[in-house]
Model the fold of this input.
Amino acid sequence: MDFSSFLTSLGTSFLIFIVLMLLFAWLSTRQGNAVVYYPNRILKGLDPWEGGSRTRNPLAWIRESLTSSEQDVINMSGIDTAVYFVFLSTVLGILVLSGIVLLPVLLPIAATDDGVRKNTKTTSNGTFNDLDKLSMANIEEQSPRLWAFLGSTYWVSVVSYILLWKAYKHASALRAKALMSPDVKPDQFAVLVRDLPNVTQGQTRKEQVDSYFKSIYPDTFYRSMVVTKNKEVDKIWGELEGYKKKLARAEAVYTASMERGNSEGTRPTNRTGFLGLCGKKVDSIEYYNEKIKEVTRKLQAEQKVTLREKQLGAALVFFTSRVSAALAAQSLHAQMVDRWTVTEAPEPRQLIWSNLTIKFFERITRQYIVYVIVLLTVVFFMIPIGVISAFTTLENLRRFLPFLKPIVDLEAIKTVLEAYLPQLALIIFLALLPKFLLFLSKAEGIPTESHAVRAASGKYFYFSVFNVFIGVTVGGTLFSTLKTIEKDPNSLIPLLAKSLPSNATFFLTFVALKFFVGYGLELSRLVPLIIYHLKRKYLCKTEAELKEAWFPGDLGYGTRVPGDMLIITIVLCYSVIAPVIIPFGVLYFALGWLILRNQVFPSLSFSASIIILSNQISTEEKFLFLLL
Done:
């Protein structure tokens, strides 16, 4: 690809971004789309369109994003969101300050040398030759101009250290402010206790926990709640919730039939057999009411049995003071590391209940096993991709799945499969990777959802760095210079060093696609909009189902943060080698800051904060209410 092709690709990506931005400006003013573009404002009882105007300037969202303060972000979406914006602002500051020096200093130094023309064996021959002249590739070997690139490395390092230190202090201050807030949360009065020892004969698990903590914290201990084996209770609870939803749908259908002109309406019916396809035909409303009463009695009986007979080796302990809870979470409560493990209590909805009773040494074993699996996944990920790509060819489908031969031989289907089947299989496989990594993280025995997401995001980052950053850099060089390496193995390191500047051009287009197309799709929210309208038209019958269809999602830390970390890794590594990549990194994080600032207020729920209903409710009652 030559320089004109690069500009064409960049211009196409920019045009796509402009189209998506205009789509957002138009679609977000449609009345039926307000719940997709402004759900947070609707949930808080605010006007979706600021000031009540639906004919405002299409670019008004840019002004609103720029004028919003950090406190506005915290009030709307919580501390987690504010800390994420500290990260974006810090990276943006590092790149801007680096570019202020590197661009005017290094670009003229590189452009006025003649290394590319003189080095006829350059690894970038036939690629972006014009852009190579703006990088270290155009510097002759042992030229004194290389000192400027070395000095620039120190400048980027110093800027990064200073801004990262300021960001650390800023994030720490935000966390301290949140912890000292008078708006207390119930989990601040509780600790999570795992690895409980066996109970003595004649003593229940609750009596064991109460007596132990009452002896250590006699003045501030409140009470404990022992974790129980809720598998059967959860099953019955799910059945009860299913009947409640079906009853609500049946009542909604009945109400709709009366509104269509029939004063008496048409009572909905269903069959009681398998999947509603067979069995006795009954009145749906009466049937579901009877089933709800029946299952409720069954649930209450099972709850009593569970509380009495199915207590496990973990508990939540409550205190009357936040200070006591903090001290307990940071103190050692037993001489042996595998006994009485006490940590801060997470929010109730964050708990992974099935992991609470996993013993200490089992957690350690699981952790090492997961690390080995992740290492093998990262290193050998290209093998399953290759297998899938090979298997999904038409020839192999005919060979291994002969019953599909009459279908795949149809001319129209054959053309589509040949064009898209391997790529589609690869995209699906890659889309499953984050879920697989999250599954592995939970399998370690991690007790909370947020911790598991954080662990999965770390694994995803390692995967991205190895397969995207290192894979492209090293793999491209090895394939293009394999014969040279065979003749002279000692030339591997010099060849890799020479290939770095030319590989920067690949990452230029990579970053450009990420911020133009990726952020364009995020701003336009086309996919959530289409999904919402499909659900609204064909699936949702009740207000609860409709709200569930448009309810805002979270930030998606498991993939978003690793993606941002990959971009800053690429840009920082190539900032001195090919400074022209810096403006692309600045655009990526500047657009990310602007668009996500807009998304925070209308459409994303970033934080996992809990709303305290009333200060008159006891700490345990708040916690138990949230559990229920």
Observations:
- The first helix runs from residue 3 to 27.
- The radius of gyration is 30 Å.
- The chain has 26 helices and six strands.
- The first strand starts at residue 190 and ends at 194.
